[in-house]
Amino acid sequence: MIAAHTPVQRPRDAKLLVVEANGRLQHAPRQRLADFLRAGDVLVANDAATLPASLAGIHLRSGLPVEVRLAGRRSLAADDVREFVAVVFGAGDHRTPTERRALPPTLANGDALALGPLRARVLHTLDHPRLIALHVDGTPDAIWAGIARHGKPVQYAHLPAPLALWDVWTSVAARPVAFEPPSAGFVLDWQLLHTLRERGIAFATLTHAAGLSSTGDAALDARLPFDEPYHLPPATLEAIHAAHARGGRVVALGTTVTRALEHAASLGLHAGDGVADQRIGAHTTLRVVDAIISGTHEPGTSHRELLRAFASDALLSRADAELAERGYLTHEFGDSVLIAA
User: Fold this and answer.
1) What is the phi-psi region of residue 208: left when phi exceeds 0, alpha when psi lies from -120 to 50, beta otherwise?
2) Could you give the CA distance from residue 253 to residue 1 in angstroms, rounded to a whole number?
3) Model confidence over 291-333: pLDDT tens digits?
4) Can you identify the CATH homologous superfamily of domain 52-150?
5) What 3-state class would DSSP assign to 273?
6) How far apart are CA 183 and CA 167, in angstroms?
7) What is the C-alpha to C-alpha distance for residues 219 and 100, in angstroms, rounded to an integer?
8) Rounded to whole angstroms, how far apart are CA atoms 143 and 145?
9) Cα separation, 132 vs 6, whole angstroms
10) Which string of b and e fits 220-258 if b means at least 16 CB within 10 Å?
11) Domain range annotation of the chain
12) Residues 170-218: pLDDT tens digits?
């Protein structure tokens, strides 16, 4: 598939492939998404806003440049912002694909990093030359201010122009906790939400700290997704129970929503905070999500692995062939699929 080359989040000509549980495949304009949902369903979206999680800086011991991409933290709490899991690159910028980016200088425990107005240190490395636990100095307010002033959204080499922060926010973006955009949510606009309401399709949100989609290193990508905190509001839990009670489906808008809901379901499906630490794939029994709306994902990625919980490999292979034949666009600003389990 071809990567989308423009950060236009809701293009009028975007495409939708509908993969039905009986094996039928349908193509439609993505504007018709609501036509493939049913009265009684609930559509659940991730309302996380995307952080400017890419921080350029200097490795002070060597004096060499680094790019630190924040990639995880323990909770969504606003004051829990001093420690992160981070992926570190060496010299270069987003114009070079991540798989060709230089390694950072050799990082050792205690190494200091100057990241614009922020000062940080390597707590410890995590069994890979790019992956570290990072401590950021300062008060939570000062850290948030430094990230806001100095950080940039994670950039992509296949896009011709740098992304601004508003390019990576969905229409329902709320708390800034995602490290890359929950990009399935780019399908949302106010017209779609109005149509859902008119047709008796409920809409609800949760907050999930979407992590990095790729690190540019095959060994490190094999560890994805990292542990990701989430919050499931009581109102969303009520909407899920109401949908199932009336025979409707729970439709997850994206892999992050699926991961959060299925993790919560494994613990009894209670409202509140959690950390999704599981992997979802072909051998996963889905407890609460009945269908997923996702971007198009290439085989071998963690996002594509999650789709194997919704459809057989044979059906997904047929879908992949259709996506390629019809020129569907992949990556963050690409086209979409709807898969019913």
Assistant:
1) beta
2) 21
3) 999 999 888 888 999 999 999 999 999 999 999 999 999 888 8
4) QueA-like (2.40.10.240)
5) strand
6) 11
7) 14
8) 5
9) 31
10) bbeebbbebbbbbeeebbebbeebeeeebbbbbbbbbbb
11) 2-49+162-340, 52-150
12) 999 999 999 999 999 999 999 999 999 999 999 999 999 999 988 888 8
Give burial (CB, 10 Å; 0-12/13-18/19+) of 67: buried
| Class of domain 2-49+162-340 as given by CATH | alpha beta
Q: How far apart are CA 177 and CA 71, in angstroms?
A: 10
Distance CA 37, CA 20 (A): 12
C-beta separation of 341 from 309 below 8 A:
yes
Q: Quick one: which of 319, 331, 318 has its CA closest to 2?
A: 331
Separation CA 3–CA 7 (nearest Å): 11
Neighbours of 12 (CB within 10 A): 8
Given a contact cutoff of 8 angstroms between Cβ atoms, the answer to whether 128 and 220 are in contact is yes
Instruction: State both tokens at 108.
Output: 């050792």
The alpha-carbon radius of gyration of the chain (Å, integer) is 20
